[in-house]
Amino acid sequence: MNVTSAKVLIIVPAFNESGNIARSIKDIQKYNHPFDILVIDDGSKDKTVQEALEAGARVVSLPFNLGIGGAVQTGFQYALEHGYDIAVQMDGDGQHDASFLVKLITPILEGQADMVIGSRFIEDNGGFKSSFSRRLGIRFFVRLIDALTGLNISDPTSGFRAHNQKIITAFADNYPQDFPEPEAIVVAKRLGGRISEVAVLMRKREGGQSSIGQLKSIYYMFKVTFAICLHMIRSRESR
Which of 12, 74, 77, 94 has its CA 20 to 30 A from that of 62? Predict the structure, then answer.
């Protein structure tokens, strides 16, 4: 399987990303990849849907805000129903650089991985590394995932990642909610998935504000830690 023969879906969850979403879509399109772009509108109240459609993306609109986990799971369900080989999760706020898409999916195309995470920390490429408080949270999850699974993932909160059909099928049925990225790694590992990272460059958010503030970040850190530990307990009990 190669880039031209693989059926690839780019899943872009978006909530009130007017002003960002069109730029994100055009960033993907300018490389002329034969990929389909699906925006999951998570109950936006602004012009996200209109701008995404005008930019040439397909759009699935949720009736109300489900949060990032529900939006991404909807994308996996779409990918499963339409027979995609690879599903790539990509933010709609302009932080993820579409020039790295082929690099991201190559380990899957070559049969070397089931999930590939785009990491901003493998190489010092001058890209945006996130705020200091969030980097502390990232380091916490790096150590937690390593301690519980043996996986050394440098950027477990990265939302720039690719998945093959095995992972698409699993996540279409069950995907973590809220701050799902660290937990999704543990779920994929528990399913026997091969997980790897590639170095990517990320940019600072181009406009608007993140829906996750500092207080929410602390709340999610405790919540996700509990969920990850629960997954590990269930995994051991099922053996």
Answer: 94
Please give the model's pTM, rounded to 2 decimal places.
0.89
Specify the DSSP element, H or E, that contains 162.
Answer: strand 161-163
Residue 154: other Cβ atoms inside 10 A: 15
- Structure confidence by residue, pLDDT tens digits, 180-228: 999 999 999 999 999 999 999 998 866 545 555 555 667 777 888 888 8
User: In a 10 Å sphere around its CB, with 0-12 CB exposed, 13-18 middle and 19+ buried, how is residue 4 labelled?
Assistant: exposed
Torsion angle of C-alpha atoms 215, 74, 163, 80, degrees rounded to 10: 170
CA dihedral of residues 26, 134, 66, 94 (deg, nearest 10): -10
Burial of 62 (0-12, 13-18, 19+ CB in 10 A): middle
Q: Which helix (H) or strand (E) holds 38?
A: strand 36-41
Supply the DSSP string of 52-112, one letter for each residue.
Answer: HHHTT-EEEE-SS---HHHHHHHHHHHHHHTT-SEEEE--SSS-B-GGGHHHHHHHHHTTS
CB distance 17 to 39 below 8 Å = no
Reading the block at residue 148, the tokens are 């519980």
Q: Residue 236: pLDDT above 70?
A: no
Q: Where are the domains of the chain?
A: 8-238
Instruction: Please return the burial class of 159, using the count of CB atoms within 10 Å of its CB with bins 0-12, 13-18 and 19+.
Output: buried
3-state secondary structure of 230: helix
Neighbours of 68 (CB within 10 A): 24
Q: Any idea which fold 8-238 has?
A: Spore Coat Polysaccharide Biosynthesis Protein SpsA; Chain A (3.90.550)
Residue 91 and residue 11 in contact, taking contact as beta carbons nearer than 8 Å: no
